[in-house]
Amino acid sequence: MSQLKFGVSQALTRKEDDALLRGTGRYVSDHTPAGTLHAVLLRSPHAFAQFRITDTGKARALPGVRLIMTAADTAELGNFPVMFPLPGVTITPPPYEILASKEVRHVGDAIAFVVADTVEQAKDAAEAIVVDWTMQQSVTDAVAALKKGAPQVWPEKPGNLAFEKAVGDKEKTDKAFATAAKKVSLTIVNQRLVTNYLDTRAVVAEYDEARDHLTLTLGSQGPHRIRDILCKFILKIDPKKMRVITPDTGGGFGTKLFPFREYPLAAVAAKKLKRPVKWVGERTEHFVGDAQGRDNVTTAELALDANNKFLALRVETVADMGAYLSAFSPYIPYGGALLLPGVYDFPTCYANIKAAFTNTLPVDAYRGAGRPEAAYLIERLVDVAARDLGVSPDALRKKNFIKPKQMPYKTPTEKVYDSGEFAGHMARAQELGDWDGFRKRHAESRKGKKLRGIGMATYIEACGGMGPQPAVISIEKDGGVKVVIGSQSTGQGHETAYAQLVAEHLNVAPEFVTVVQGDTDSIAVGFGTGGSSSIPAGGGSVSQASKKLADNLKKLAADALEAGAGDLEFGDGKVRVAGTDRAITFADLAKTGSADMLKGEDAWAAQPTYPNGTHLVEVEIDPDTGHIEIKSYIVVDDFGVTVNPLLLEGQVVGGAVQGIGQALMERTVYDPDTGQLLTASFMDYAVPRAEDSPAFQFETRNVRCVTNIIGVKGAGEAGTIGAAPAVMNAVVDALHRAYGIRHLDMPATAERTWAAIQEGKRLHTL
Fold this sequence. Notes:
Layout: H1 17-21, E1 37-43, E2 49-55, H2 57-60, E3 65-69, E4 103-104, E5 110-116, H3 119-128, E6 130-135, H4 142-145, E7 161-168, H5 170-179, E8 182-193, E9 202-208, E10 213-218, H6 223-235, E11 242-245, H7 262-273, E12 277-280, H8 283-289, E13 293-304, E14 310-322, H9 331-337, E15 348-357, H10 371-389, H11 393-400, E16 409-410, E17 416-417, H12 422-432, H13 438-447, E18 451-460, E19 469-475, E20 481-485, H14 494-506, E21 513-516, H15 534-561, E22 568-571, E23 574-577, E24 583-585, H16 586-592, E25 599-604, E26 612-621, E27 628-638, H17 645-664, E28 696-700, H18 718-739, H19 750-765
Parallel strand pairs: 1-12, 10-11, 14-15, 20-21, 27-28
Antiparallel strand pairs: 1-5, 2-4, 2-6, 3-5, 7-15, 8-13, 9-10, 9-12, 13-14, 16-17, 18-26, 19-20, 19-25, 22-23, 23-24, 26-27
Helix pairs in contact: 9-10, 10-11, 10-18, 14-15, 17-18
């Protein structure tokens, strides 16, 4: 594409930031229509129990209480569906009720919905509801849940097995292992995470009795999907009877792709009471009520020949589903397994997934959704293999990388990589991180009685295939350009990026462009934002629709200016005859052109893209405390075409910090005996702060994506995918150099790291 002032590749600052910085952003909690009532959920304090609500009379009689709903009042509502079936596997999910009717299966399970004049009154009423509980033995660990004799989460799911799914060629893989000269194995834990976004979930439901019509205002990653699930499966109404609006939304990370209990409950309450009903989640409710992420235990085996060439990969994964199967949950470990070969030339691969029910919150999509788990596994395994074999981790990687001449490359899990130069970005990261100078820095750290390590991760992921994502680009009466699209920004900078794609064809400044998203009444179809698809899919649609609009405007202007369309050019909201002062404004064209000629439409059906890159990390560890300091963090990525380098770097750095959080501090802990969530607030669950974020050095080494119409590769999740394995490889490198420690599971907290050092010292003295 051309290098226009406001076009693709330009480092424009975000146009949406002005309102946010001035405090004039509009979030769900800012929306309080006249007459709004307020709601709270009564949640289970127990992990597994039978229950009976024996008395709501006292609660109903309290001041301000308007409505109390239990399972009996919502019996006509459907259950939450599973949205992504697995090929070759029939999954019969247990009932995921809107309100639990007889049993609760995790702490935070919902049993009643209370509406009152104020939040405080609703809370008082919820506390006054009398519940008779009969506790049952719970199980909160997936591996334990699959063992004989474990407590049964669902009686109809014997052994707590939700489903089992295999990927790859078992026979071919087993044969490769039988003849392998060398074998390496590793068991890892990819711990459960809480998907902490800034903006907790909220909903405002309004009912128009005259039209028998509902309007829900809620934070989401796309209102169309939520509307369609609610209407088709739960409320069982025509989607035309509901409008869903998403205003400003502060983060989603996958969890806001799908509906939660509060949305249909608020809708039913608003209809019953003929008043707006508002629910705003508190932070603790997020910990006990929203889907969580990750939570796999995996054993991987690597087979090599005598020259250290990879022959086969064999993997067994136990994936924790929680108490219910959430919307996308079955697909996540399966989708991750398809990426297990990573950037390496594996002749064969086999993975088997066992998904388990436990008495915990459901697990669902969280930034990367399976791909971080796959990258962490293969990148840790390759590092361990290098040390076991006595070779350098970069040399083993380079020997086994897929070569550019092999592109397009079909993996043994049927993924087709279109482009990539993996050795190239690894070499560049090593250059930026002074890989060869590490020995000197290591020696200096030893003088200061510190441990030093260096590690890398060379990752690849599949993303950007969500769609087709419809986009409509039109000229308004004032000459402005309006973009209407079914994606949804949760902070990524869509308004700026889409304006740049429009500018590529219409050569207008960002202030000329208005982006409309987050409203099911504005566009008929929308796939929302997930899987790093906004630019690969939505951007492709915006680009093509803008091109069509540009062609239409040139035709209109050619008639008005009595010139050939080929002699016309765009600039400053005008169409002019090149090399002259003869021009006509978009506003004037809008006065005479037909509606069809003043718009362009497209719905680009994007194929998956395969962003890839190298993260290179250097750490220093204090052996007396276990404290880890990241001394250097290098990222060299291949994203095909960069639309906006500032936005891109922000996405990568933000994602990398989330990966650092998983590597060094984040961990969801349930009490194994009671099932209580022990990390239910920021007092107990650590997230990265500014002091935990290193000074990143980021650059791209792009290879254009040949399957995407604008050449881009999705970027929103890539930082998270590369970060955790790179950080942990650096940490283990430091521990291995000092004490021969082979592996340490995430999170490498100071306490865990100190304990590993003590054990390493003990073994060294034997």
